[in-house]
Amino acid sequence: MKNVKRNLLWFSLFWLLAACASDEGQAASTAPVPTAAATAVPATITLLPDTPTPTTMPVEETAVPAPSQLGQPVAAAAQITVGDWSPDGRYFTYWTHMPEDADVFMPGDFYIYDAEQEQSCPFDGYRTGATTWKRRHLWLPNGEILVFGDEEVVAFQPCRDNFALLTDRFPEPITRVVTATADRSHFLLTSENSYWLYQPEGHQVRQVLEFNQGMDGGAAFSPDGRYVALNGDEGGSYLLDVTTATVSHIAEWESPIGLGGLGAPQWLSNSQFVIVTSKDLGPLLIDLDGTIKNIGLTFFDRATTPESAVFALQDDGSGQFHLLLEASNEAAPLRLYHSETDEHEAITLPGTRESYVTYPANEQWLLLSAYNEDNTSQLWVRPIDPANSIPQRLASHDKTMYPRAAPVGDYVAVGYSDKLELLTLPDATVLATYAVAEQTIYPLGFSPDGRFLVIEAVNPDSSEALFIEPVDGS
Question: Do 148 and 173 contact (CB within 8 A), yes or no?
């Protein structure tokens, strides 16, 4: 059961990474795409050594405020699918579904919620493609939303009627927005059988010719926007040159489950990216020339195996990064690599039998979930820097907890099924507590600026309600 639980966790984390991947930079003139043959560093099965871990600090208990009253729901329906926030944190997209809409990729009614005006605006021409990884809308740099509707492609300011028809700009119906540069100057899209590069300036659209691998898998722009790293259907790495819209196969590895791998590549620099894990070689570091390096041998002194996974946290401003290494073996501690000091450390939590990172975390904090021998859930926090920082326990519960860290600011929302708490980091001061009678509530995440918290409430009949609450003090 433990391995099943962890495999399900990894699966959800990797799809989240694939759905949310977005890298900073703009396209620039480039040299031809490298085509050097891939080379691999031999992996030896040598266990990583344990290293001392600092003693954890207890959390001082503070008075808990009375439960806060949730406001009016943004929406209530048989089922709700959440979309995404506009980059400025003002607008939020979602779908509502009727019972008869139930399907794997169920249709639904599309809405845009204005958090400042506290109102939702419907958009009737966009019912299909409601799931996160099949999303067919994107946010433009000028604040408009572009929707690939069922019949037309339109761009408009949210909750306004200033529609600009762009259908003729796209030679084929777009089925998915895959990824974008951080400044949203370039997007990668898919149609039924092809990739497309879209540039909002001038609404330029270019087809990526003779390539349709990994269209349901992971892709990510390099920080400078010159390349897109793509996972193939059964694994392997491909490099898309943004200037020429051509693709080269640069490295060979085997996907754990097909469908393009378990997550988007994660760029560490303009010339290297990380593969979360592979079935044959484990987590990998890949250069633009196709050189494959074992993550463990490169950063952690010993080889890592296919039972490991690595997650990258990059500081786009400084070029520094951190790597968090997780293994399915419960005896193996989490490991964290710091590029700024070229050192790695083991992270263990006393009194726990199993721990794993709760991803995504923000740029300052690591959230760690753990289980005791009696299956009691625990939530821990520690700063990413400096190395060997002392973890602190945030919460403990006899049920599974559902944490969501704010992307900015020092706080986290934790759901306990019957209630939800908003806690400060790292001292666990309770800022707010929400509880709804006869409903199960979950935190779904924060707006990009941390001003709003999205909450889902599930009724006994499985119908759902969506709440968007302001975060005091953010």
Answer: yes
Question: Which residues make Cβ contacts (< 8 Å) with residue 445, sequence separation at least 6?
Answer: 404, 453, 454
Instruction: Tally the C-alpha atoms within 13 A of residue 333's C-alpha that lie toward its C-beta.
Output: 19
Residues 6+ apart with CB under 8 A from 282: 43, 294, 295, 296, 303, 304, 305, 306, 307, 308
Picking from 439, 447, 446, 435, the residue whose alpha carbon sits closest to that of residue 465 is: 439
* 237-241 β-sheet, strand order: 219-221, 227-231, 237-241, 246-251
> Could you tell me which residues are beta bridge partners of residue 365?
383
Question: Rounded to whole angstroms, how far apart are CA atoms 218 and 231?
Answer: 6
Query: Which pair of structure tokens corresponds to residue 211?
Result: 């390539």
Query: Which residues fall within 8 angstroms of residue 280, CB to CB, at 6 or more apart?
Result: 253, 254, 306
Question: What is the DSSP track for 352-400?
Answer: -SEEEE-S---SSEEEEEEE-TT--EEEEEEESSSTTPPPEEEEEESS-
Express each pLDDT in 270-306 by its tens digit. 999 999 999 999 999 999 999 999 999 999 998 998 9
72: CB partners within 8 A, 6+ apart: none
What is the C-alpha to C-alpha distance for residues 9 and 14, in angstroms, rounded to an integer?
9
- CA atoms of 343 and 322, how far apart (whole Å): 10
pLDDT digits (tens, 9 = 90+) for 233-257: 889 999 999 999 999 999 999 988 7
User: Token match 């821990």: residue?
Assistant: 380
Terminal CA-CA length for the chain: 40
User: What is d(CA 91, CA 120) in angstroms, rounded to the nearest whole number?
Assistant: 9
Amino acid letter, 285: L
Flag whether pLDDT at 64 surpasses 90: no
Residue 430 tokens, joined: 């309770």
Run of H or E residues at 18 = helix 2-20
